[in-house]
C-alpha cells in the first residue's frame, strides 16, 4: 500500500516542509497499459550572473578580463531586457508594473558583487530567462537607538526586483531562499528585508504566507525616506510601500526548499493551464562560480537536521559576524 502524503512528510518538518512542496508536484502520467509515459521536460537552470573581480597587478586589463567584461555586458543587457519586457507587457495590459526599471549598468554593477540570480532555459541561440531577482546591498545612515540626533551607517540588504514569467513553479520563493541562505552562509551582516509597492496585492501575501516573512513595522526613517524619494521621482508616490522581514521560519522553509529542488529536479507546475507543465530544474554548477551550490545544499541539510530557534542557535550555524538584525528574531506569529 502506498503511504499517504502525511506519512511521507519528514518528522517534525511542519509548515516549512509544506511550503517547500509548493513548487513540487509529483508527476504520475501513465499510458493505456498503465506504463509510465515519456514526459518532455525542458531543462531550466537556477544560476547566478557574475563578473570576475579578481585584483589586477597591471593597470591594463588582460584579454581574458576584456572577454569576461564583454560577456557581462551582454548578460546584463539580457537581464535588463527581461525586466523591460515585463514592464511593457504590464502597461500594454493596462496594469501597473510591480517593479522599478533597472538598466544594464545597474545590473552590471550587481553582477560584480555576485548578486544577480536567474532561472533560465537554454535554447538554440540563447538562454531564455523565466525569472530573475537581485540582492541590493546598501549602506544607509540611520538614527542611533536611544540617541538624540545622532546617526550611524548600517548595512541593508534588499531581496528585490523579483519577476517570474513562468507561473506554477514558485520561482520567486526559490530565488529568495537561495539569496537568503547564501548570504547567511557567507556574509550574514546587515539587515535583510523585502519591499513591494503598496498596491501589490499578490507579493505581500506571498511573502507572509509562503515565505514566512513578517511585516516590517519600524522601518528606519532614512530608509523609508530614500524609497519614497525614488517613488516620487517616478511619479509613483501615491502607490506607497509595504515592507517585510525574513524570520527563522523563513530560514527553515528555505532550507527545505533548496534540498527538495536538489533531490527532486523533475517538477510539475502547480495549478491548471501552465505554460510549461513539466520541467527539469537544476542548479547551474558553472555559473555559481565562487559560491558553490553544493556548499549551499550541505548548509540547508544542516539547518533541517537541527532547526535553529533563536539568534544564538543560528549563530552557531553561521559565523561570528551574524548581525542581530539579520532576521526578524523578535517577531511573533
Describe the structure.
The structure is a single chain. The protein is α+β, with helices and mostly antiparallel strands. The protein has a single domain (about 40-315), classed as Aminopeptidase. It contains eleven helices and nine strands. It has helices at about 5-10, 15-20, 65-90, 105-110, 170-185, 205-210, 220-235, 250-265, 285-290, 295-305, 310-315; strands at about 45-50, 115-120, 125-145, 150-165, 190-195, 215, 240-245, 265-270, 280-285. The protein has a nine-stranded mixed beta sheet with strand order 6-7-5-4-3-2-1-9-8. β4, α5 and β5 form a beta-alpha-beta unit. α2 (about 15-20) crosses α8 (about 250-265). About 30% of the residues are buried.
Amino acid at each position: 500500500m502506498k503511504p499517504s502524503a502525511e506519512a511521507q512528510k519528514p518528522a517534525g518538518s511542519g509548515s516549512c516542509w509544506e511550503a517547500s512542496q509548493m513548487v513540487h508536484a509529483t508527476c504520475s502520467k501513465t499510458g493505456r497499459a498503465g506504463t509510465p509515459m515519456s514526459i518532455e521536460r525542458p531543462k531550466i537552470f537556477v544560476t547566478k550572473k557574475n563578473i570576475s573581480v579578481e585584483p589586477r597587478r597591471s593597470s591594463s586589463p588582460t584579454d581574458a578580463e576584456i572577454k569576461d567584461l564583454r560577456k557581462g555586458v551582454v548578460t546584463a543587457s539580457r537581464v535588463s531586457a527581461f525586466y523591460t519586457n515585463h514592464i511593457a507587457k504590464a502597461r500594454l495590459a493596462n496594469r501597473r508594473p510591480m517593479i522599478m526599471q533597472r538598466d544594464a549598468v545597474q545590473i552590471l554593477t550587481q553582477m560584480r558583487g555576485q548578486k544577480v540570480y536567474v532561472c533560465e532555459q537554454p535554447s538554440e541561440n540563447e538562454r531564455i530567462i523565466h525569472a530573475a531577482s537581485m540582492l541590493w546591498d546598501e549602506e544607509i545612515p540611520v538614527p542611533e537607538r536611544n540617541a538624540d540626533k545622532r546617526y550611524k551607517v548600517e548595512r541593508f540588504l534588499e531581496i528585490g526586483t523579483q519577476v517570474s514569467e513562468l507561473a506554477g513553479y514558485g520561482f520567486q520563493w526559490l530565488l529568495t531562499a537561495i539569496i537568503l541562505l547564501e548570504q547567511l552562509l557567507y556574509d550574514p551582516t546587515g539587515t535583510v528585508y523585502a519591499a513591494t509597492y503598496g498596491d501589490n496585492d499578490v507579493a505581500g501575501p506571498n511573502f507572509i504566507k509562503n515565505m514566512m516573512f513578517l511585516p516590517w513595522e519600524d522601518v528606519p526613517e532614512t530608509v523609508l525616506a530614500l524609497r519614497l524619494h525614488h517613488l516620487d521621482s517616478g511619479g509613483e508616490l501615491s502607490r506607497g510601500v509595504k515592507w517585510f522581514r525574513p524570520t527563522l521560519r523563513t530560514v527553515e522553509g528555505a532550507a527545505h526548499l533548496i534540498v527538495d529542488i536538489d533531490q527532486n529536479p523533475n517538477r510539475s507546475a502547480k495549478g491548471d493551464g501552465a505554460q510549461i507543465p513539466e520541467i527539469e530544474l537544476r542548479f547551474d554548477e558553472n555559473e555559481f562560480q565562487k559560491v558553490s551550490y553544493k556548499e549551499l545544499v550541505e548548509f540547508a541539510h544542516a539547518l533541517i537536521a537541527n532547526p535553529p530557534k533563536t539568534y544564538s542557535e543560528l549563530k552557531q550555524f553561521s559565523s561570528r559576524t551574524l548581525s542581530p538584525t539579520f532576521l526578524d528574531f523578535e517577531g511573533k506569529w
